[in-house]
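Input:
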Amino acid sequence: MEHVTQLLLILVILANLFVLGSHPLGACIRAVALQGIALGLLPLFLHAEERSVHLVFLSIGMIGLKGFLLPGLLFRAIRDAALRKEQEPLIGFNTALVLGAGLIGLGFAIAAKLPLPPGTAASIVVPVALATVMMGLLVIVTRGKILSQALGYIMLENGIFTFGLILVKGLPGLIETGVLLDIFAGVFIMGTVIEHINREFGSISAYKLSNLKE
Amino acid sequence: MLMRFVSVAVALLAAPLLPGLINKTKSAFAGRKGPPVLQLYFDLAKLLKKGAVYSPVTTWIFRAGPVVSLASYLIASLFVPFGGDSFLSFSGDVIAFAYLLGLARFFTVLAALDTGSSFEGMGASREVTFSILAEPTIFILFIVLARISGSLSLSHMVTPEQVLMNPSTVGLLLLIVFSLFVVCLAENSRIPVDDPATHLELTMIHEVMVLDHSGPDLAFILYGASLKLFLMVSLLAHLLFPIRAANSAQGWLLFGILVAIVTISIGIVESAMARLRMVRIPRLLIAACMIAIFAMIIGLR
Amino acid sequence: MSLFLLGLGLIALGGILSLIPRVPRVLASAVCNGLMILGCAVGVVPAIQVLAGGPLPSLNMPWSVPAGQIELLIDPLSALFLLLHFIVCGSAVMFGIPYFSSYEKTQSLKPVRFFTSILIISIALTFTAQNTILFLGAWELMALSTFFLVIFEDRQERVRKAGFLYLIMSHTGTLCLFVVFLLLGRQAGSLGFSQMAHNKDLLAVGTPIFLLALVGFGVKAGFMPIHFWLQEAHPAAPTPVSAIMSGVVIKCGIYGLVRVISFFPTLPAWWGIVLIMIGTTSGILGVVWALAQHDFKRLLAYHSIENIGIIVLGLGFGCLGLSLNNPVVAMLGLAGGLWHTLNHGLFKSLLFLGAGSIYHATGSREIDQMGGLWKKMPWTGFCFLVGSVAICGIPPLNGFVSEWLIYNASFVLGIHNSNFCFVLGVPVLALIGVLAAACFTKVFGVLFLGNARTEAAVEAQEGGALMLIPMLFLASLCFAIGLFPGVFLPAMSRVITVFSSVEAGEFHQVAMNQAGMLAWIGWLSVGILAVIGVLALVRRLFLVGKPVSASATWGCGYALPSPRMQYTASSYAQFSTLMFRAVLRPLVHMKRITSLFPAAGSFESHSPDAVLDRFIPRLAAILRRVLYRVRDFQHGRVQFYLAYVLLFLILLLVWEFHGVSLLWKKIFLLDAVTKVPPP
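Output:
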């Protein structure tokens, strides 16, 4: 099972890099959806020896929510706002890619220093989780469109979720549901806000939001 | 020794099949019949029979370009395993392999600049720019392979049998294959980096550099290009199924099938993708490089 | 030793004779330069003998200078650098005969000849001195004579500025060296190098010695942040002098650093890592700036910074191998780094001489004004091509051999260790190599290929046999090392035994194993030449009896192409430098085309040096702002001046009686120094 886990985690990182380096919004949403599905499958393989109903439910819930529901919402948002492409971000795509690789390295360096529960040190779960969180933040910080920022937000949450996976046995279902609900509500609200902003101002550039100050 | 010699000889003879196979795949996707698989052989035979035309601007650098680049590809092919052991191998031959490709590029670029044409200068400029991104990527992949296989010899590095003992490196190998595949597309001027069938000088890279060559010179260039493609595809084929086999019928058969698979997948990529805009190509190569770095980070743990 | 001294004597004689007034020009040139070349040829002999395993010649004489002693020794490390020194200087002096003759009408050549001979002697003494006072004396003499050679064309303001910049930087470095050798001398109890080697007491002050030596020698060698005199002084100096500077003078920095490191019986691992970091920065940034240049001497100067980076990278891996007790890596790294020193000296002086030949023929240093020179100057072109291939580290020439060793050092470390720094060498070298290839295809292609872009380039011609012989000599050495590297490896392993931390027996074994692999590289190079020859023959055979015709270059149907439409160096490099615009930050001036019937447009871009042209002016502005405030203290009221005296007195008392001085001693490690027992 070790190598399936590793493949899934590699897929997670590749999805991150893809989002950092490409501008068609639709493709980015699909990449994040794929990342969600990979993460949904992860608990089944990470804790293969003790697959429980709990795990299966968690998995199905994750895949349904992150792989289909949230991307669906985002797709609706870009259809309604007639968006196709990311505008030129704060830093270039090439630089973002290089920074992304740097963050991966940083994630691995930090994970090597963290006091982790025994048995998880050899796995790449923790470094991947850290890297995903940081890359999500990078997307939020550097992208101009609110929609990309929402994507970054989902990536960030995916990272936190991955981190939680090593502790999944000890994590009560309530917290998971709480986290999921949180992100769901966040994206839902964002979707609505995007629609309203777009209708009001004819643009959803985050740069232009600074006009709202006063 | 004899078997090694045979394997290199067969490889050198079979190299011009690959462009034919790619074109056949593309034709199949486009619903055409397409040129025969052996087309490049016919082209080479015809070109070798022809005379040559030289611009008065050129010097013997222009004539040396095809010769030197073909010579480097020929020597580089001695280090590549074709379904068995390579003809030659010593610790550190990977570096020699990569630098031989560098020698070929150096003289191809000089031959292009020798014509004094701005189109060829443009192609040369693009070629070196993309190699700036591709070359470090290749070497990063070499580090990972050296670490997995514990060897510095190309024929052992592309058949890291250790992967089979340690399944956790499978993911690593996939990253390597993916990254090397992108580099292979760029180095051999395939879509999405360069379109070998294009007809506008402004958009070409490799084709525009060899625009002024004719006759036997052009034959050398076309054969050299197919040989380079064959070398890179061989590396990929070995990495897809990393088992070291002695030179034997089964080994060669398996290798042939794997080469066909990689070649056809290049054809599929070419059919499915459009050529990228010139300014976008660096991003593709940087992505490949970052994936290689990711592989290195995992591999260094 | 007598041969070495004879060589120096001949060179000195050449220098002194040049001062005699009213000698016919031709006679003066022939005698002075002849003696210097002869001296260099004689001086090479003992160096080769030592490298071949002969006894180490030495000289020991008392000297009236306090604590000084005339103590010379040619050990293998000195021999390696002496070999390079005499080869490069001999070639450059011979090249200088026709080169300087064009200045003869306007300027006296006496200073050039005199200071060249001083420079050659002082460098030779630097490489052989075994006493601190002698070493520093020779070092200063070298710096001063180089300064006088740099300002040869002192009527140009730019040249004077570059000369002063060099002088200031050089002395800043020497200041650090004084401290380095003072610390070394205090710890070893003697100013002789032989007492410093293998001395365990040195480790107590290892850190300040290492860091100060990095700065002191690094200024001379041109490590990246403190490199900035280099790209100004190299183009300003007359070309034969630039060849000596780039080939030998900056190598003195490497020699000094290696010599100081070789004293230490054990090396901390972080020294190696610091060296690797410096090598990486100098290597990559040097070549990136080189790529953006369009003055070919300035471009070559930046390439010297790049190659110093490669050398330091190799030395870093060697030191890391020594501190990790890994003899294979130590051997590969040190041999690679030191060998690259020799190789770089050879091909870089070759390239500078080639550049000088072009400057002599055309009177310009702008790459973009050349073109088509191959047809006018085929021999210079061939030598320049050899140098270009060698500097890119491409087989079958010598650059590949040393870079191959450094690559291997990094690979071997990377296979067995999980440290990111250890494998850094591989992608860094790959990036440097491919950028250098981009740069030299640009230089060679635009200088020698295509059509001539200006009238000067059309009328260019070879500068005569005296210019070609040194170039062909250096080119043939590049080939010799590339084709037979196995022959040179035993000499390299002898050089490495100079290090105190190296056990000779173990290294000999490792060296023999490496010799086997290097023989492969030699065969590979021979094979490349052979296959090229066979294929050229095949091509010839195919063309026999076929129509070979001439026709204009394909211009996409445009009927009136002009040479100005060719790709220039700037346009060729533009796509590549675009990727590095974040660090290069090129300045672009252009006239945009606005109307339907536009006037002549223009485009110009250049990349100023990051340190000299950007950082230092900014730093100076800040300093000036701060120091302006200091003026407030000087306001003309006597009472306040007296108050300053009082304040200072109080400060001094507190300093002495309240423990501040102890703190001071702790910070600057003066404690460690005073702990040495009196002899």
